[in-house]
């Protein structure tokens, strides 16, 4: 078993940007998703067993959604394209909870695989892809019935992050365990069509809005791998400030934001990568280290 480490050391000399707000949520926030209208953020608080809903206009928590137990360990969260539902993975009971965003109530709970971790919804809103950390599989949920459909899809060792291409044809899965790969699933047949070697400890993955590139946060070697989707090969590797725990790309596709935790930082930071040059163009110092999910992983 292994756990993510805390940050130590200092920052490198790059342009520094400012944090404009800090929002207090639950304990150990592990995943976050923004509604399509940009009005709210849903934050999965792993240790407190809740989801915080943040009003993006005021940067305040407007709702806290509890689960059956504070040991439910919510980790990943994804919003449907119509903004009506949030799908939240819970690693302890190995379920996915469905929250209706109009009422912020849990309307369904779906049993899934062992070590439920990441989740991503297809652009048409019909399916949610869920990683099972200890099964080394990806499960597919039909959102119309909120049931698992088809057979589990075998991927690499300890799958964590997951993202769907804008056209919905492929799903990219970050396999944290050694040797460190990204599995590419073709959604038409739900089979793996490519396995891409990346850095050490790939934990999160994001696709550019035009679908041409995939950015992979490698937690254990302080890098971000950039995959060209046309060839499914790594075209460049970007060093960042610390262990890359999470990643997101701006709607215009010009920047990738990387949450840096362990390795070389006293307080953590967010690195901004310019996607045109694939270099770090800004660094956002944080008051404390960003924390990825704290659940133990199976040793590679």
Going across the major beta sheet, what is the strand order? 1-2-3-4
What low-confidence regions span 5 or more consecutive residues with pLDDT below 50? 1-14, 295-300
CATH top level class name of the domain at 23-154: Mainly Beta
CATH architecture of the domain at 23-154: 7 Propeller
Can you walk through the features of this model?
The chain has a domain at 23-154: YVTN repeat-like/Quinoprotein amine dehydrogenase (Methylamine Dehydrogenase, Chain H, 7 Propeller). Helices cover 0% and strands 50% of the residues. The protein has strands at residues 29-34, 40-45, 50-55, 60-66, 74-79, 85-90, 95-100, 105-111, 116-121, 127-132, 137-142, 147-154, 159-164, 170-175, 181-186, 191-197, 202-207, 213-218, 223-228, 233-239, 244-249, 255-260, 269-274, 279-285. The model is unreliable at 1-14 and 295-300 (pLDDT under 50).
Which structural traits does this protein have?
single chain, mainly beta, Methylamine Dehydrogenase, Chain H, 4-stranded antiparallel β-sheet, globular, disordered C terminus
Give the helix/strand layout.
Blueprint: E1 29-34, E2 40-45, E3 50-55, E4 60-66, E5 74-79, E6 85-90, E7 95-100, E8 105-111, E9 116-121, E10 127-132, E11 137-142, E12 147-154, E13 159-164, E14 170-175, E15 181-186, E16 191-197, E17 202-207, E18 213-218, E19 223-228, E20 233-239, E21 244-249, E22 255-260, E23 269-274, E24 279-285
Antiparallel strand pairs: 1-2, 2-3, 3-4, 5-6, 6-7, 7-8, 9-10, 10-11, 11-12, 13-14, 14-15, 15-16, 17-18, 18-19, 19-20, 21-22, 22-23, 23-24
